[in-house]
Structure formats: C-alpha cells, structure tokens
Amino acid sequence: MPGTALADWHSGSAPRVVTGWTDAAEPGVAFPSNQQAHLPLGTWQDDAGVTHTSRVYATFDLSRYDDSLVTGGTVLVEEWSAADCTKRSVEIWRTEPFSELPTWDQAPAELAKLDEVRTPEYCPGARLGFDVSATIAEAKAAGERHVSFVLRVADVHEADPAYGRRLSRSRNVSLSLSYNTVPAVDSGNLFTTGRSCVKTTPYPVMGAASLQARLLDADEGEDLTAEFAVWPVGSPDTRRTYPDRTERDSGRVATVTVPSGDLVHDETYGWQARAIDGTETSAWSDTCYFTHDGVKPSAPTVTSPNFPPGGAPGPAGVKPVFVLDGHGDSDIAGFQYGWFDSNDTWPCLRESRPTQYGQLECTDPLDAPQRVRADRPGGLATVSINPYTYSAMSFYVRSVDRAGNVSASTRYDVNIPYSVPDVTLESGTPEWNQPVQLKITPARGATNVVRYQVERGQNAVETIDADATGTARYSLVASDAYGEQITFRGIGADGFVSMPGYWSYSFAPEPGVRSDVYDNSSALPVGGVGVPGSFTFSPPPGWTDTAEYHYVFDDWENGLTVVPAGSGGRATITWSPERTGHHTLVVFAVRADGTWSDYNAFYDFEVASGPAAGRPAPTVR
After folding, report:
1. Is residue 621 part of a domain?
2. Which long-range contacts (CB under 8 A, 24 or more apart) does 387-391 make?
C-alpha cells in the first residue's frame, strides 16, 4: 500500500468538565478551582491552626477526539509550594466518572492507581506529569466521552503535613493527548474525467479515465496521498489499484489517470478511492462507474457551397461555409473544426483553470468551442468560420464520438480574397484638437459590408453603419497630442469580420502654420510681389493656454513681431511679399506665464514672379 507521506502524531488537550478539591475538615463542601486560590493537596493547617486534608479531582471531555486515534495521555499539574521539598508522594487514580465536583464524604470510588511521582527534584515549581494513556485507550474503546481522575498524596503519607503542597491555580489540572485523526475521502466530491461521480445507470461513456477524489483530514498540516481501485463490474476479483503519491493538503483532490492499456473498449468499470496520511488509511469511498470507449471514430468528409477547394478564390467579404459529413458512421456524434489542426485530445484534459478543489471540470465534449453536433449519429453539420487572414488557408475537421475521442483530421484548402477596408482623409491635413473626417470603403469585390468596427484607443470599440454601397464616414477630434492609430474592420451581413485597415496621425511639437495663398506644399511658386496672403498660427499639440505668437519673415535683424492669440489659441496675420523667390517664416508660441515653445515652426515657400500658381491647400508643419 502506498504511503510516502509521514503523519506526525499531534498534541492536543481535552477540555475540562470540572476541576477542584475536597477537604476532610469540611466534608460536605466542594471547592471548585478558580484563579483566586492555589489547589491544596495532602494535609495542611490554616492560619487558625485547623488541620485539613485535601484531594484534587478533575473530569475531562474526550468527545473532541471521537474520530481520532489517541495514543497517549498525560495529566499535568505544576507545584506552587511544598511543605518539605525533600518529601513528595503524589498519586493519580482513575475514579468513577463525575460531572459535578464531589465532596469529601461523597467522593467517587477510586478504580485504579495509574501513576505516581515520588522524586523530589525541581521543588518547588516542578511540573508533574502522570501517564494515563492506558485509561484514555480504555475510555475510547468503551465509547466513554468523559474520564475522571483524583490526585492525592499516597495513603501512607497523606496524614503527614510534610508531604502537603499546593498546585498552581493558573496551571490548574490539564490533560494532554497525543492523537492522529484518520483521514477520509469526501464521497460528495468524486470526479470521473471532470464530471461528478455517477453511481447508477446510465453510466457515462469515457474515452479517458482521469479519476479524482477530494481528501479530508481534520488535523492541520497533514500531507495526504491516495490510492484508487478500479475493476470491471463483471469481474470485481480483478480489482487493480493505482497510487497517487503526490502529497496534498486536506480539501484538495488526488488524481490518477488509468492507462488506456488497462481498460477494455465497451467495458463498464467501478472505482473507489481512499486517503492516506502516512500513519492511517481511510475507508474506501463510495463507488463511481463509467463505461470505457477506446475506439476512435472515422474521419469526416468536407465540402463547401461557396468556397471551391484548392487555389480558386471564393467571394470577398463573406465567411466560408463548410458542410461536415459523418458519412453514416453511427459512432460520430459531432465534429471539431478550425483553421489549425489540433492534437488528438479532448480539450478538457489539456486546458487547465483554477477550480474549487483542483479538480477537472469537463462539459460534454461537443459543448467546447469550435465543436458542433451532427444532426444525427453519423449525419451532417453546417458551420461558417471567419478567416484570420487572406490568401491560402487550410480548414481542418475531426470527427468526435460521445466519449470525446476524436478522429484523424480531414483538410480542406481555400483561397480567401483580400478584404481590408480602405480609409481616406476627407477633411484635409489634420490639426491638433480640430475635427477630422474619414471615409471608409470596402475592399474591391466585398459587396456584403453593412457596418464597420472601429477601435480607437485602448478598449474603445464602437460600430458605425455603412450605406448601401458599403461606405461609411467617421468623424473625430484629433485631441491626442501624441497622435493615435485607429483600426477599422468591415463587418458583413453574415457576421464576417475583415482583416483590419488602419489610419493614423501624428503632430510635430511646434506651432502650426497655414496660409491661404502661400502654400508651402505647392510644387510651384505661389502668390506674387504685393499679393497679400493670410497666415494662421495654431498652438503646439497639447497647449491649451497659448497667449501670443512671436514671428519673423526672412530677416532676423528686423526682430520678432508679436501677435496675441485669439479664440482657440489661434492667431491670423496678413503679409505681402516684396520680392519673389524663397521665403522663410519662423513662429514661436508663448504661454500666458511667458513660457516659450521648445520648438519653433519653420514655414518655407516660394513666391511667384507673376500671377499666383499652384494649389492653395493649407497644411501643417
């Protein structure tokens, strides 16, 4: 029997039911122990010279250890004082049980002397221990929940005051026990391959046998192992055992996987488990049952009504549709499918996640993602699946039986057309914190687009509707000073989702400059000598408190000109060139606190010698 864990015997104490003393000088009075007086033992005299003889009584409750094995018991007291430290003769006797403290003249019968201490060492202040292990074992065996004792000076010395002493009121009388609780299996939490234990027909059909049982032990810190037994219901004498030697805490499951070679196809099995703490072994758990299916189903066939096999492309912007066929094999309950060829494993057995006791949690093998039931055993199923890219792709299908066994894969090759939407800017070159409008159109041939999914920023997803041509417009304010990237995906009427198209913007960190006449993006000279043109300055990205702009055309010797910022932090000036050719405008932004922009704008343009030419489209540097 396996048992790599080693349980420690634990130390505990039994609760006191009653403790106190009796006094021969007051034979009708019981004296319960308290924190006010030390417990007298033997013969002593009070301050008035009256002689007393006392015995100490105690009853303890063992019910806390009903489910434990108790291997030792010690009654403990501590001396507070002694009349003569050279003389000590203290005995402990088992008495008839009592739950109320007796008096001297109604003392319970003394049944057996259990132990005595006669040595004088460590007096006073000695801690005295009395071995009562045999009595505890007898009481446990008899099912007695209470055990009672008397501490007294030996009869031959009891009348001698030299043997009298007092026991510590704070220590009182205690019973220390050495015990170990027998572990157990929680029969309410047994699992067969991720499903709760089934004890009656119909039994679940399993392709693999992963057996789990929750182990319990009331003792703290125990390391538990387990043993599982498995047998064919028709041949219980061929019972085989499988150990799980991995040490686990109480409350967690132990696990064994029965080798497939030990199981016979279409055979029904029972199984049990028991817990081991290295010293004790629990009883066997309840019995669970399963039927083993060790045969894989045959591979399916695959066709598609809208995507031809091989290299010819299918329609753009629609999901491929596939018909999965079990070709009459009644063992086929459904299908596993996808763009990747998965391994031959029930997903439950390879996909771990935290559970209450560490157990597997498995649903029906056809309830997993990308699995579908056939319309009848060996029948058909139709699925559509979104491609994750465009160009050549391979679709894989496996048959699945009711036990979760999967077949070899069948492959179907398709050619997915390009479907990325096109995004164009309609509102001119973007400026920081100004409106932008984008036009989104479907990829060529994608006539099925009804809306677009828009992702802007982290976790910011929205949808916008497309018109009958698949076109949509998206407006935003370019408020991010650092720029951003926006993702667009076309969504078809059948739920198809395209590969993403992107639009992004970014800004230089200096002030913006635009001109209605003197466009610096023109390939030809523009304007002319004496032809006035307006120049509009805008704040650097992120600036919300621009107060003014300092600028100069060409000649720094003339100094910088200052223009105050107006609404939105913008300013517009008018300037007429006095010569043709190349010109440079330099602009600085200044905040109200006098802070200048770290970067200045350089706006270069060419002035024509005649009438204005080129195209007056404003821009941002």
Report:
1. no
2. 387/319, 387/320, 387/339, 387/416, 388/339, 389/416, 389/499, 390/416, 390/417, 390/418, 390/419, 390/420, 390/499, 391/415, 391/416
Task: Report how far Cα 171 is from the mean position of its chain's Cα atoms.
Answer: 47
Domain count, the chain: 5
Helix (H, G, I), strand (E, B) or coil at 141: helix
**Residue reference for tokens 């100069």:** 552
Q: HSE (CB half, 13 Å, CA atoms) of 3?
A: 13
Is residue 442 situated within a structural domain?
yes
With beta carbons less than 8 A apart as the criterion, state whether 208 and 404 touch: yes
CA 575, 579, 582, 583 torsion-angle sign: negative
CA 166, CA 275: separation in Å to the nearest integer?
48
- Give the angle 307-500-339 at the CA atoms, nearest 5°: 40
Is residue 142 domain-shared with residue 42, that is, in the same domain? yes
Please check whether residues 205 and 272 belong to one and the same domain.
Answer: yes
Divide the 621 residues of the chain into consecutive groups of 10 and give the mean pLDDT of each group.
Answer: 51 95 98 93 96 98 92 95 96 97 98 95 93 96 96 98 96 95 96 95 94 95 96 96 96 96 97 95 98 96 96 93 98 96 65 80 86 97 96 96 93 97 92 94 95 90 96 94 93 97 93 95 94 97 95 92 95 97 97 95 93 40 31
Give the residue from 138, 164, 181 where a domain finishes.
181
**CB–CB of 591/545 below 8 Å?**
yes
Residues 6+ apart with CB under 8 A from 411: 341, 394, 395, 396
Helix-strand-coil split of the chain, %, nearest 5 = 5, 45, 50
77/174 Cα distance (integer angstroms):
7
Verify that 363 and 474 share a domain, yes or no: no
* Same-domain pairing of 40 and 162: yes
Last residue of a domain, one of 505, 524, 547: 505
What does the alpha-carbon distance between residue 579 and residue 529 come to, in Å, rounded to a whole number? Answer: 5
Pairwise CA distance, residues 288 & 227, whole Å: 15
The two beta strands, 288-292 and 205-206, are parallel
Between CA 591 and CA 598 the distance in angstroms is: 12
Which residue's structure tokens are 């967690």?
252
CATH of the domain at 235: 2.60.40.10
Let me know whether 177 and 189 are in one domain.
no
